[in-house]
């Protein structure tokens, strides 16, 4: 069938096929599967990959999207583009001690472009780009798998030949519909993995193009090798894993281009065999190309290291508990257990969770733990595959197994904890690239089974069933990623011991105003992790709002005791102490918060409120001024300054502050209202009226706005308009303080005027 498909290529191409058929078995001969032309194969893969994740297109910003996108100043136009090259993925300076050192400027740049064209934080555009990226990557996988499974061969005209169209289509479909990819596609932050994978594959395909003019392995294009290195660097600027493509290119060069037998080569090296040149290392330029790849990779890593700074990222025990274990044995056992769980997610991606930290996977502390079986199973399979990859007499088998293991293991190395501590236990997003290796091994295994099976169609139907189940699982999981409520609740059944899951469910409920339910989940988070300071802080906040001040104080005091530099908890503790009228302690808590977070406008605002309660007016004004310097759009601080100056009779100063505030926040109706009050007292009635009317237009249902405008008209002598706005104010709020009395005064005055007129 393959020969007939390419008859137009003339006899030379048939000779190439004949030579390939003699030297290597064709996987496609073993399986009963669809044979489609390359174009239609790619169309099918694109459509099915789109079908899997299409329902995520109108999802919200969820989980890490808030920090990486909504709260990331690097997306906004006022931030210079140059800052992207000095900040981490979350918008923090790389030199900061709190930075995670995740350097992905190109990914952040695409977020910024999304933000620019959308005109704000509208998630649809972000989601659509992610879906398109996954579809594009899945299409590229058809070409990649055709090389990995069928070998790299070119026609005399330099056109690459697909010698495994059936198996490459199957492997690409397996990749396209794998449910473990949902986090990368449906979660906008997953774009880092998608962009990294895109340039990773382009680098690999570019390296393959270097041998288009290759005659028996002697010649190669230096330009395409350099292009491959550059694309690898771009992949790394999207996410750190990207650099591993250079190692895979070297493995591919050795196994496919140079057809090196690793076991034979090792034996020759051990015996100092002088026939190494005959093994093809020097004759075919392999050492030169590997040197070029490694030197390029080392240069890229050095530049990144210099930009990042020498300090490692700061992670906590809750992020990755195994890495903080004192015993080397405990660390090693648990790392290997994590590897086995990652492998299980590839094999059976049914239990998926947005976060696997905080007690989701309890530590293995002794060999009596039954979970040790998972480690044994993993290494039994890996050792078996490695032995077959090294020792098999079948060169075709050696090549495919080694490439499959290479793509499975090498891209996973940055997440393995072997070279540095990572900030997670398991992250589904980091197995996006390693899943390529899984798809190679699965497809090869299916081919071997088909070769032995008498009823090949039954196996084909079984694989179709797996694909269909995966499509449905992707659609279901994508729908869970559409909103935080669905995402967080879906994790409760997967990781019931994960304190962060309960924390996030509680936070989502609190944001929606369901404080009673939120308290339940926050308490469970603290029970599961008694050192979970963020849960204590949020629970303390809710209890403070419900006036349960004693318990709130206990929780917040415990939080700052566990984490003394937790500025938000110190500020909230100060608010509680202020409510308990323990003013000195409150002031001390506020200043401790500011000590740990120098730029803390909300804390200065609360400190100003404390000073105002103590009639320390100058200190209050200074605190609020600090808040507005740090955050010019801090409306509450501006308002309090205007009101305090107004109440103390400093009308000119209050007016100046009000005008300054409105220049910075021109559409804030509360500032218009405050300044209008000041102008009315200064008898600047016309300007005051204009501001009142503008404030009412922005917020027509504010009773106080109508009431104070009525007072202005009352003073000004426009009694009919005063009566109208008093009535509107009382209709909106019949209990509005002072309004009823003023209205009654006005009515008496109007009655007197009517009597005089009569």
From TrEMBL:
Alphabetized Pfam families for the sequence: TMTC_DUF1736, TPR_16, TPR_19
Protein name: dolichyl-phosphate-mannose--protein mannosyltransferase
Sequence similarity: Belongs to the TMTC family.
EC main group: transferase
Cross-referenced InterPro entries: O-mannosyl-transferase_TMTC (IPR052346), TMTC_DUF1736 (IPR013618), TPR-like_helical_dom_sf (IPR011990), TPR_rpt (IPR019734)
Superkingdom per UniProt: Eukaryota
DUF1736 domain: residues covered: 311-383
E.C. number(s) listed in UniProt: 2.4.1.109
Pathway given in the UniProt record: Protein modification; protein glycosylation
Record localization: Endoplasmic reticulum; Membrane
Presence of the UniProt keyword Repressor in the record: no
GO biological process: endoplasmic reticulum unfolded protein response
Annotated SMART domains: TPR
């Amino acid at each position: 069938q393959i020969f007939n498909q390419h008859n137009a290529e003339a006899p030379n191409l048939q000779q190439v096929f004949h030579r390939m058929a003699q030297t290597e078995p064709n996987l496609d001969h073993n399986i009963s599967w669809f044979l489609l032309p390359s174009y239609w194969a790619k169309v099918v893969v694109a459509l099915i990959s789109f079908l899997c994740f299409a329902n995520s297109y109108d999802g919200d910003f969820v989980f890490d999207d808030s920090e990486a996108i909504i709260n990331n100043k690097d997306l906004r136009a006022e931030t210079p583009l140059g800052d992207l090259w000095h900040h981490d993925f979350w918008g923090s300076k790389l030199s900061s001690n709190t930075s995670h050192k995740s350097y992905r400027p190109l990914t952040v740049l695409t977020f910024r472009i999304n933000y620019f064209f959308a005109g704000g934080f509208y998630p649809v555009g972000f989601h659509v780009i992610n879906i398109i990226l996954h579809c594009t990557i899945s299409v590229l996988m058809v070409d990649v798998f055709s090389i990995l499974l069928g070998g790299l061969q070119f026609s005399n005209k330099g056109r690459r030949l697909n010698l495994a169209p059936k198996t490459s289509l199957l492997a690409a479909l397996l990749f396209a519909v794998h449910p473990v990819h949902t986090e990368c596609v449906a979660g906008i932050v997953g774009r880092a993995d998608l962009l990294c994978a895109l340039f990773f594959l382009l680098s690999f395909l570019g390296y393959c193009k270097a041998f288009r003019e290759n005659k028996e392995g002697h010649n190669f294009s230096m330009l395409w090798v350099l292009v491959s290195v550059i694309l690898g660097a771009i992949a790394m600027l999207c996410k750190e894993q990207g650099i591993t493509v250079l190692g895979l290119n070297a493995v591919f060069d050795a196994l496919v281009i140079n057809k090196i037998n690793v076991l034979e080569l090792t034996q020759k090296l051990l015996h100092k065999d002088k026939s190494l040149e005959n093994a093809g290392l020097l004759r075919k330029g392999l050492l030169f190309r590997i040197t070029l790849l490694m030197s390029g990779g080392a240069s890229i890593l050095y530049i990144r290291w210099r930009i990042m700074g020498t300090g490692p990222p700061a992670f906590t025990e809750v992020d990755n508990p195994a890495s903080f274990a004192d015993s080397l044995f405990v660390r090693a056992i648990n790392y290997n257990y994590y590897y086995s769980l990652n492998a299980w997610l590839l094999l059976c991606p049914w239990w998926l969770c947005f976060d696997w930290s905080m007690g989701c996977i309890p530590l293995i502390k002794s060999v009596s733990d039954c979970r040790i079986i998972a480690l044994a199973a993993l290494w039994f399979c890996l050792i078996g595959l490695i032995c077959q990859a090294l020792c098999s007499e079948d060169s075709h088998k050696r090549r495919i197994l080694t490439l499959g293991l290479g793509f499975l293991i090498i891209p996973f190395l940055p997440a393995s904890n072997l070279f540095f501590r990572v900030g997670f236990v398991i992250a589904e997003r980091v197995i996006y690239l390693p899943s390529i290796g899984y798809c190679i091994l699965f497809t090869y295994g299916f081919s071997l089974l088909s070769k032995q099976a008498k009823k090949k169609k039954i196996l084909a139907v079984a694989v179709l069933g797996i694909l269909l189940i995966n499509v449905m699982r992707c659609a279901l999981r994508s729908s869970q990623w559409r909103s935080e409520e669905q995402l967080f609740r879906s994790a409760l059944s997967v990781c019931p011991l994960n304190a962060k899951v309960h924390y996030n469910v509680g936070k989502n409920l609190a944001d929606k105003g369901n404080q009673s339910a939120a308290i339940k989940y926050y308490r469970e988070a603290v029970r599961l992790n008694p050192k979970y300071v963020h849960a204590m802080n949020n629970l303390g906040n809710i209890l403070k709002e419900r006036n349960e001040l004693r318990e709130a104080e206990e929780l917040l005091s415990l939080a700052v005791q566990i984490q003394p530099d937790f500025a938000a908890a110190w500020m909230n503790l100060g608010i509680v102490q202020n409510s308990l009228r323990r003013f000195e302690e409150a002031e001390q808590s506020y200043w401790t918060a500011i000590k740990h977070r120098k730029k803390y406008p909300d804390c200065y605002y609360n400190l100003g409120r404390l000073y105002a309660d103590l009639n320390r007016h100058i200190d209050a004004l200074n605190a609020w001024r600090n808040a507005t310097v740090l955050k010019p759009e801090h409306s509450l601080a501006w308002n309090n300054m205007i009101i305090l100056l107004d109440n103390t009779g400093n009308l000119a100063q209050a007016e100046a502050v009000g005008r300054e505030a409105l220049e910075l926040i021109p559409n804030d109706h509360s500032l218009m209202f405050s300044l209008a009050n000041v102008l009315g007292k200064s008898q600047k009635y016309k300007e005051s009226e204009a501001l009142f009317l503008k404030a009412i237009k922005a917020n027509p249902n504010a009773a106080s706005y109508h009431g104070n405008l009525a007072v202005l008209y009352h003073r000004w002598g426009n009694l009919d308009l005063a009566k109208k706005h008093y009535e509107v104010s009382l209709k909106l709020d019949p209990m509005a303080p002072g309004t009823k009395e003023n209205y009654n005064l006005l009515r008496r005055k109007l009655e007197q005027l009517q009597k005089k007129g009569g």
